[in-house]
Specification:
It contains four helices and three strands, in the order αβααββα. It is of the alpha+beta class. The chain has two domains: 67 residues, Arc Repressor Mutant, subunit A; 36 residues, no CATH class. The protein has a three-stranded antiparallel sheet. It starts with a helix and ends in a 6-residue tail after the last helix. 12% of the residues are buried. The protein binds iron/sulfur cluster. The site of iron/sulfur cluster (SF4) has 11 residues, from helix 4.
Amino acid sequence: MSHKNSLDQRAIKIIFEAGDDGIMQSELWKELGVSSREGSRLALRFEEKGSVERRKVLHEGRWSYKLFSKREFVTMNSIEGCPCMICTDIEKCFESGIRDPVSCQELTSWLTPRKTD
Ligand code: SF4
């Protein structure tokens, strides 16, 4: 893993673990051991990707940014009813296999949003 990827992963983990309280940019830079310039670039990149929200806050008399994770916990609700969970063909199911998730009707129906009206 490259230095950049490992730094990204550490940063994302710290921001995620900060939860709803978020974390001040400056605190994150300290924890990561990077300069504010490098850290700001990192935060902007995360914001562009949509994984982090930057909120401007007044901190100790100065404007700064607080970072909040936009990732959510995956819950069992998100896979409830997925046909793969009870499929007897799962061992044979892979791309270009005997069964193929790309062309599976059951999976496609489950993934297709149902009309509510
Ligand atoms: S994609 Fe279809 S065939 Fe494959 S495991 Fe899921 S339900 Fe079974």
